[in-house]
Design brief:
Radius of gyration: 33 Å
Strand content: under 5%
Number of helices: 39
Helix content: over 70%
Oligomer: single chain
Distance between the termini: 112 Å
Largest sheet: none
Number of strands: 0
Length: 616
């Protein structure tokens, strides 16, 4: 007598094909297929789970006319799991009858195998489309970028639950930031998933200000919320550290996000210290540290201590040696890679370009078995590096496809030889402009002396592309090109509306005040940096403040700041004081002390500064 309950449990727990066949044989000895269709359906399901569609087919055939809708569905699921979608389609067409359960199971089978055409055919055949099926189709179309079709299905739904609304929000969040924001406001209600979807969108677009506003408005938060705001702040390691310290708990993703923030900021000491403190690591953790290293020997040590390597690991170690000009070592590593792929070949190609060997890069490109857009962009950069504008242009024209990197490389090539009109033409011809494209055009104007054009362009850059680096760069260009104080003040004030100011932006602000002789505003910036932004002033900030005070005639305050700052005084501060005191008839004592201080470090510099001041 068959213990049916025990038999069903054994079927559910079976993990291997050998065991599955033994169980099936035992069942056949006791009961025939037509006598217990439910039990034999479970056998079909078991064979599908262990990956044997042929055994599932044989069991299905033994049912004969006793098979029901579930028998068909389970057989199709077995073939779908084995990847035999053509057989699934054939079986679907042969089904004598279908119900909502069979429609749903087959739809999921096609969607799980990314066969969207077959899934849509099943979806169209469904007499009633329930919320679950519609939501699955919305997510599938969004995943492949067909947002109009996803939206159409959403609009056609007879009723929608919050899961459906969130699926549509997720689709828009991956495509159109503005539309996603509007759609979020239309939701009949918000749950934590809704808030996290919009927050993650801001994080992926590195829009920290919008992310922070949303984060502060959230009625509840979970680990995903905290991790998203941490990722949004990855271009400011100080803010990222503050967020990380406030998090109620951490997981590997949050540790990696903080690790990446330090890597982006170039904080190599903090990066390595953080890496050593991590309670657990994965390959991403190792790769972040490896990708940020600049010393070839240290990178090699880390690389050899990694538990495993992927294409990114090999590419990173190639890049480190190439950047250091050690092409021989890079090539030696390249030929040690167990199996080449296009990613690794592109890394070696980029290595030749980074090492300043455009001719070798061209030869390597010509020898590659397969090439893609990354390969073309690398060889385009090689020609641009050679300064051969005509060859660069002809290569650009021959490219089978282009992206923003290709267009930007061509733009920079024109800018390097002063062809600003051609650079402008390329910029405005681009089908899509990335953050890199806007920055390249900005740099082209600024470096060729077209500051007014640069400022006009800067005002048009989309906010999502304006990071701390972009703001700090345009502020630095302003004061270095002698732009009016009013323009600088307006830009500096606007910066606070889009990003958090960082160390370099305050350096630019204090230098601007120094050039204008505005001691009061310079001191306000210095205090604001400490009190409002919790930024610890570096030695460059103190040196700028010394220069500001000395130029303004506050020699005593400048000397006191040099002697009391929490850093070992360098020659830069004393040279600023020396230069300013030499131009004042009432500062002999400061002149003598600063001269001796500079002379003790760099005697030649002391006499040069003194000589220049006396000539003025």
């Amino acid at each position: 007598m068959l213990d049916r309950g025990r038999c069903l449990e054994t079927l559910r727990n079976c993990k291997t094909l050998g065991a599955a066949r033994e169980i099936h044989l035992e069942i056949k000895r006791v009961v025939g297929a037509s006598d217990d269709v439910f039990l034999y359906n479970k056998v079909i399901e078991m064979y599908g789970r262990v990956g044997s569609a042929s055994d599932a087919q044989e069991t299905f055939a033994s049912l004969g006319s006793s098979g029901n809708v579930f028998s068909w569905v389970l057989l199709m699921s077995a073939y779908a799991k084995a990847g035999h979608l053509e057989i699934v389609k054939t079986l679907y067409d042969q089904m004598p009858q279908r119900d909502m359960v069979s429609f749903s199971l087959i739809l999921v089978a096609f969607l799980d195998n990314d066969d969207l055409c077959a899934a849509e055919e099943v979806f169209s055949d469904m007499p009633d489309k329930d919320i679950v099926c519609c939501t699955s189709m919305i997510a599938a179309f969004a995943r492949v970028g067909n947002f109009p079709r996803a939206h159409h299905i959403f609009e056609e739904m007879p009723q929608r639950d919050l899961v459906a609304w969130n699926s549509m929000l997720a689709a828009f969040a991956g495509e159109d930031v503005g539309f996603a924001q509007e759609f979020f406001e239309k939701l009949p209600e918000w749950n934590l998933v809704s808030w996290n979807l919009l927050l993650d969108m801001y994080a992926q677009n590195r829009d920290f200000i919008s992310a922070l506003r949303l984060f502060e408005a959230m009625p509840e938060r979970n680990l995903m919320s905290w991790t998203s705001i941490l990722i949004a702040a990855d271009n400011n390691s100080r803010v990222a550290k503050e967020i990380f310290d406030r998090m109620p708990q951490h997981d590997l993703v949050s540790w990696n996000a903080l690790l990446n923030a330090n890597a982006q900021a170039g904080n190599l000491c903090e990066l390595r210290e953080l890496f050593d403190r991590m309670p657990w690591r994965d390959l991403i953790s190792w790769n972040v540290v490896l990708g940020s290293m600049v010393n070839g020997h240290e990178a090699a040590e880390l690389f050899h201590s990694m538990p495993c390597h992927d294409s990114y690991s090999w590419s990173s170690i190639l890049a480190v040696h190439s950047r250091n000009g050690n092409l021989q070592k890079a090539q030696q590593i390249f030929y040690q890679i167990p199996e080449w792929n296009l990613v690794l070949c592109n890394a070696m190609l980029a290595g030749f370009v980074q090492a300043g060997e455009p001719s070798i890069a061209k030869n390597f490109f010509d020898s590659m078995v397969a090439i893609d857009l990354v390969s073309w962009n690398a060889v385009l950069a090689a020609y641009a590096q050679m300064g051969d504008l005509e060859v660069t242009k002809s290569t650009f024209d021959r490219m089978p496809e282009r992206d923003s990197i290709s267009w930007t490389c061509m733009l920079s090539s024109y800018a390097c030889v002063g062809e600003i009109e051609d650079a402008q033409r390329i910029f405005y011809t681009m089908p899509h402009r990335s953050s890199i494209s806007w920055n390249a055009m900005l740099a082209a104007y600024a470096r060729n002396g077209y500051m007014r054009n640069a400022l006009c362009l800067f005002e048009r850059i989309p906010y999502s592309f304006l990071g701390v680096a972009e703001w700090s760069a345009v502020l630095a260009w302003c004061w270095s090109n002698g732009e009016s104080r009013g323009i600088f003040e307006n830009l500096f004030a606007s910066m606070a509306l889009t990003v958090l100011r960082d160390e370099s932006s305050f350096t630019s602000a204090i230098i601007s005040c120094s050039h204008e002789g505005d001691v009061y505003s310079g001191r306000c910036y210095f205090q604001s940096m400490i009190q409002d932004y919790n930024i610890c002033p570096g030695i460059q900030h103190y040196s700028c403040m010394v220069d500001l005070l000395a130029r303004g005639g506050y020699f005593g305050m400048a000397q006191e700041l040099i002697e009391t700052m929490p850093y070992e005084p360098n020659s830069e501060g004393w040279m600023s004081l020396l230069g300013a005191s030499c131009r004042s008839p009432d500062a002999d004592s400061f002149k003598e002390k600063s001269f001796r201080a500079v002379e003790s470090v760099n005697a030649g510099a002391a006499y040069v500064v003194l000589g220049n001041a006396l000539k003025a």
